[in-house]
Amino acid sequence: MATVYYEKDANRSDIQDKVIGIIGYGSQGHAHALNLKDSGFNVVVGLYQGSQSWAKAEEDGFKVGLVSEVTKEADVIVMLLPDTSQAGVYDREIKPNLSEHKSLAFAHGFTIHYKTIVPPSDVDVWMIAPKAPGHRLREVFTQGNGVPSLVAVHQDASGNAKGMALAYAMALGSLKAGVLETTFQEETETDLFGEQAVLCGGVTSLIKAAFETMVEAGYQPESAYFEVMHELKLIVDLLYQGGMEYMRYSVSDTAEFGDYTRGPVVIDERVKENMKKVLADIQDGSFAKEWIAENDEGRPRFNVLREENAGHPIEKVGKDLRGMMPWLKSTI
Questions:
Q1: Separation between Cα atoms, residue 278 and residue 94, nearest integer Å
Q2: DSSP 3-state of 180
Q3: Are 41 and 171 in contact (CB under 8 A)?
Q4: Residue 183 belongs to what H/E stretch?
Q5: How far apart are CA 60 and CA 82, in angstroms?
């Protein structure tokens, strides 16, 4: 069983007197910075010259500087940039200015696990990975709660890396919900697999296949959209609230029987074998190498795939139908 930490397990004094440098002010960056500031910690934001986020961060009350300047000033440097840009920024702006006894922190383990960043041995390397997008992390915090996070220590040069990580998690609000102990390897591989097999890749592929099956059988595209896309949120909300048992309790007996008997026809052992192949590519680094190379080459395949999927018929049908439901915007 995983070890879970709560507020009683952390001591804010472990980072209370430290300067925390947030590198990046996007989805995660702005949420971390604001939560830390509201929790009473000293935060500076590191950006590149000309960043569109510079003015926004200053409006939010932060001292903003170049990444190299923030790296020199901060005791804790938190990498909250996209995976594909972290290594370059680290090599150019952080590594030359990273002195011993500092902490290099992450919200995702990709660059450490796949060794695109290799920190010196005299700095702490740890991770607090919130299990929510940045806007949700911030929203829940402002409501007086927190989202769960994962904690991992890759390098403990100071002997108190975990203490600092847990104090940081407390400042984010995550210890109110619980912080699970893991490793950089486990967090990275499970996160990538979840995205690819279920949360993004699996779900969207299933939806498109179901939509195409229904339309090819002669059903109206609008009816197909409602059945396989629109109503998905209802089921996901039930799963989120109470798991599979609660979802099955909440739907009709007809739906529950179809779940038990027809679900395994669609998601059979062949799908599980394909999932194992996806996981193997993550575990042996093949996916990471492919994604890094894709970015180095200017994202030619990524851009084509994005355009192709944006043009799928379900997207046009959905856009038209959602236009009839303006209230949906208030739920996003």
A1: 33
A2: strand
A3: yes
A4: none
A5: 22
C-alpha 50/C-alpha 28 separation (Å) is 20
- What backbone phi and psi angles, to 5 degrees, belong to 279? -65, -40
- Enumerate the β-bridge partners of residue 124: 103
Separation between Cα atoms, residue 168 and residue 166, nearest integer Å: 5
Residue 133 has, within 13 A of its CA and on its CB side, a CA count of: 5
Handedness of CA 22, 25, 31, 33 (dihedral sign): positive
Q: How far apart are CA 63 and CA 47, in angstroms?
A: 11
Global pTM reads 0.93
Q: Is 101 a catalytic residue?
A: no
Phi-psi sector, 148: left (phi>0), alpha (psi -120 to 50), beta: beta
- 193 CB-near residues (< 8 Å, 6+ apart): 275, 278, 279, 282
Each residue's pLDDT tens digit, 105-149? 999 999 999 999 999 999 999 999 999 999 999 999 999 999 999
Annotated catalytic residue: which of 30, 32, 101, 108? Answer: 108
Across-strand partners of 129?
150
pLDDT in tens, 178-189: 999 999 999 999
3-state SS class at 22: strand
CA 64 to chain centre: 24
Q: Are strands 63-66 and 76-79 parallel, antiparallel or unpaired?
A: unpaired
Show Cβ contacts of residue 70 under 8 Å, excluding neighbours closer than 6 positions: 21, 23, 44, 45, 46, 77
Task: Give the H/E segment covering residue 7.
Answer: none
